[in-house]
Amino acid sequence: MSTPSDRDAALEQQDLPPSKSELKRQMEHLQKLGRQIIELSPEIRARLPLSDDMLAAVEEMGRIRANEARRRHMQYVGRVMRSEDIAGIEAAFLAMEQEEDLRNREFHLLEQTRDRLIAEGDDFAGEIMAQYPDIDRQLLRQLIRNARRERDAGKPPASARKLFRLLRDVSGL
Asked: Which family does it belong to (predicted)?
């Protein structure tokens, strides 16, 4: 059970402005987010909801070479970030991260398919040909055979790489 003094203390804390430490943490978060934006390529940066001021600050950072000047400019970027749509920027970063995770999962699935083709051969190749009717059947079988030979002889997996590229091309990744 809370006492009246506990409730009064809680109300007083709600009315207080953020502490100096909290403001510093928020500013460091904005600078970190700004640093992430600066490190992005221009094509990816274009997907973010950034103002003209922020884009100008990012471009200016690319021209600065002196360490102290870069540090001061990062503080400026943090100040500019205060007026940006932080929730929108973070949502865009999250969406890009999810896209990358999806690509990685698809990539690993293709690797597993390739490994299974090499291990099982023609049995599984029939399933792949049914799944991808446009695949070059002769090339697929040849690459499977060559990949098995390379694996058994302890040679570098050149045919396995070619098989992976073939699967990637027909799957559209």
From this structure: Belongs to the DarP family.
CB-count exposure of residue 171 (10 Å: 0-12, 13-18, 19+)? middle
Q: Which amino acid is at 144?
A: I
Q: Which residues contact 18 (CB under 8 A, 6 or more apart)?
A: 26
Return left, alpha or beta for 35; rule: phi > 0 is left, psi -120 to 50 is alpha, else beta.
alpha
Q: What is the pTM of this model?
A: 0.64
Structure tokens at 11: 């109300």
Q: What is the pLDDT of residues 18-74, one digit of tens each?
A: 888 988 888 888 888 888 888 888 888 888 898 899 889 988 988 889 999 998 998
CB 30 within 8 A of CB 87: no
Q: Which amino acid appears at position 157 of this protein? A: P
For helices 67-81 and 52-63, the axis angle rounded to 10 degrees is: 170
Q: How far apart are CA 36 and CA 31, in angstroms?
A: 9
